[in-house]
Specification:
Helix 2 (47-69) runs parallel beside helix 3 (88-105), helix 4 packs across helix 11 (316-328) and helix 5 (166-176) crosses helix 6. The chain folds into 2 domains: 5-118 and 312-344, 2-Layer Sandwich (Nucleotidyltransferase, domain 5), CATH 3.30.420.40; 131-302, Nucleotidyltransferase, domain 5 (2-Layer Sandwich). The protein is α/β, with parallel strands linked by helices. It is built from 11 helices and 11 strands. It starts with a strand and ends in a 5-residue tail after the last strand.
């Protein structure tokens, strides 16, 4: 039987991505055009600029993905697109382009939840499929959530951030310190040479006993601001070497963020008794988070699955993986498909007793 080949598009934020996946497992192509340099002068993503560049990049990125896969558009069986959540202008660019492609090529269209894509990335990358049920920590610039996955394509939301996402907190702290955008990679690099106990930052504690799996990073971000003011620290000048005080501050801030993330994952695993752990999303590229999550998984006696960098940051291969499951469930979009910037995933589950 010929392979089922699916073309997927991802434009939820500032990466224009297209990929072709065969039979839900074989990545025939995975092309990503990043806008990081475009938004760097502004210290964060400018939604209008992002949407405009998606419109410019979607056609060439899609052509590149099809070319790398060695296929014509007529040879794919379906087209998938991220329908939410994300920036409305960015999502709209991708959805409208995908609808046009699907209509012109007479192909079915499959809508995909962006976070579902991140949650499927570890399955796409692993040689041995993660055992279920699994606890999955999804950490990115726009999302920080904890899920239980009892079966493929089934997601039970255990906890989510109440304010900033972890990646957003990294970016805002980096901007405050004059470290540039995106902030996560530079803080990760500097933190490797710093004293992570130099500043006594503590992870936020959620007082509501029913929502102990939730996250909060706004208070930690404010604590960094107060420390900077109290110590009279100046932003690092462009091209200058950060002083020791900034390096130690980065290490201490990163340690507190990672302690919060890994701590919630461990608590959920102890309560839910999963068979594996998943770590995914753009912030899963952070070296400290990977190391501490691996150590925690070893203590729990559980395997940890983390996608490679190419499948950790926003990409279309992960969207294609989630779309394959949606296709198998019979999910199809109508021509009046509209993007949803606040699209929810799964039902909010109560912590186990």
């Amino acid at each position: 039987m010929p392979a089922f080949r699916l073309l997927a598009l991802e434009t939820s934020c500032d990466e224009t991505a297209a990929a072709v996946l065969a039979d839900g497992r074989r990545v025939l192509s995975n092309v990503v055009s990043s806008q990081a340099a475009l938004h760097a002068p502004w210290g964060g993503v400018v939604p209008e600029l992002a949407a405009r560049h998606h419109l410019e990049n979607l056609a060439p990125v899609t052509e590149a993905a099809l070319g790398e896969a060695g296929l014509a558009l007529a040879e794919v069986d379906a087209i998938a697109v991220t329908a939410g959540p994300g920036l409305i202008g960015s999502l709209l660019a991708g959805v409208q382009f995908a609808k046009g492609l699907a209509f012109a090529a007479r192909k079915p269209l499959v809508p995909v939840h962006h976070i579902a894509g991140h949650l499927e990335a570890p399955f796409l990358a692993a040689e041995d499929e993660p055992a279920l049920p699994a606890i999955a920590l999804c950490v990115s610039g726009g999302h920080t959530s904890l899920f239980e996955i009892p079966a493929r394509g089934v997601y039970r939301l255990l906890g989510r951030t109440r304010d900033d996402a972890a990646g957003e907190a990294f970016d805002k702290v980096a901007k405050l310190l004059g470290l540039g955008y995106p902030g996560g990679p530079v803080i990760d690099r500097l933190a490797a040479g710093g004293d992570d106990r130099a500043v006594d930052f503590t992870p936020a504690r959620i007082k509501d006993p029913r929502r102990q799996s939730d996250f909060s990073f706004s208070g930690l971000k404010t604590a960094v601001l107060y420390h900077v003011r109290r110590e009279g620290l100046e932003p690092v000048a462009p091209g200058a070497e950060p002083p020791r005080a900034i390096v130690d501050l980065c290490a201490s801030f990163q340690r507190a963020v990672v302690e919060s993330l890994v701590g919630r994952m461990v608590a959920a695993a102890e309560a839910r008794r999963p068979r594996s752990l998943l770590l995914t999303g753009g912030v899963a590229a952070n070296a400290r988070l990977r190391r501490d999550a691996a150590a925690a998984a070893q203590r729990l006696g559980l395997p940890l699955f983390v996608p490679p960098l190419s499948l950790t940051t926003d990409n279309a291969a992960m969207i294609a993986a989630a779309a394959t499951l949606a296709w198998q469930r019979g999910e199809r979009a109508s021509w009046d498909l509209e993007p949803h910037p606040q699209l929810a995933l799964g039902t909010l589950d109560s912590p186990a007793a």
